[in-house]
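Hi F.,

I've been meaning to write this up properly since the lab meeting, where we talked about keeping a consistent format for the predictions we share between groups. The idea is simple: the sequence comes first, exactly as it goes in, then the structure tokens exactly as they come out, then a line or two of notes. No screenshots and no reformatting. I'm using this chain as the first example so we have something concrete to point to.
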Amino acid sequence: MNKYIFLSVVTMVLISCGKSKPTRSTVDASEMKEIVLSNDSIMYIEDWVRDVEVIPLETSDKALVSTVDGVIVTDSNIIVYDTRQAHRVSIFDRNGKHWANINRRGRGPQEYMRLDHVTMLPDNQALAIYDNGGTKVLYFSLDGHFISSVPTGFWFSTMEYLDEKNVLCATYGAGGQDPGLEEYENRTNLLYFTDRKFGIKGSTMPTRYKNRIPIVPYIRKFEDKVYINRPFSDTIYQAIPGGLKAVYRIDMEKINGIANLDPGITHKDYRLLLEKKASLTGRFTASDGYMSLSFRIPPEGEGKNYFYSKQTGKAYAVERDYRKTEDILLWHLHDSPITSVKDRFVSVIPAHHCFTTGIFDPKTGIRTTAATQRPELAGLTEDSNPVVILYSFKEGL
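Output, unedited:
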């Protein structure tokens, strides 16, 4: 067994509170499911996709979407946000009609220096925007109006609401360099449980690697469940107020995967491992019935996706076969879905992609693409806003 791989069943998680004695939260090992990945079990998405809903986002001068870094879908809204270029949130109704924008970059009391993370409040009636540079969270209504802001007191990278009273925040291990954690005894922990005003109730997940190997935990929220994966961990946790529970352990042996690196690993050895071993990127998406896992595959580092069925307990490597369907739109669903809503995965496709892939008939000289094939895409141009696709899978996978 590779010396860097250590597979273990997690039976407890320590939640430490300030300078007080740590409290112990027991995790029932029977709740943790094992996901065994193999490249021998293949899934062609074209064979299994059903209930495809295609939603072109309205394009206008007021509703221009550039980079899509995240999507939130509710029964009433589709919210897309760009954290790298425009630093803007675009709000659409469930049919793709534009409602409002949040574009408040600046240093004022109702503005954010950076748009680092966007999430929905538990009641789905307002948005929370985290500004790391300004060390605050700003709240906006779904028609784009500012409501209020709350200082966070310490730095973190992402956050999610566990419920109306509890928030989970993931840090990047600044520790004593963060003035807000300078006097906190367990300041090297990476996950912090806070109240609605970001007062720390407890923390867990100590920094594992000594040499600053990438360590920011991934927090993903799907419906009312919040999941966490530590980089290079084989375990996915679910957060509950005050603690974590292990829900999935991923067996990567058959795909030559790497997890749980040696704590003292150097950057040189870390880079060499990435050239030889598959690794979980942290991108995973859970629907009611399935989970999508995205891996980085050596040596080029290209992505490969696996789907796990919660019903059957089976996992599949996603492969592409254009011959499986004449529905060209489905060809674009092989990449990892960006989020989910209930039993459906959500993917976002740039409009120009709907014109660049298709079937050419040499007899007629006609090239059929998703844009020309799908009636929902009538009127779409290569400069249009992205297209949102919701889809589920047939039973029996």
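Notes:
The radius of gyration is 22 Å.
Helices lie at 45-48, 267-274, 353-356, 370-373.

If this format works for you, I'll send the rest the same way.

G.
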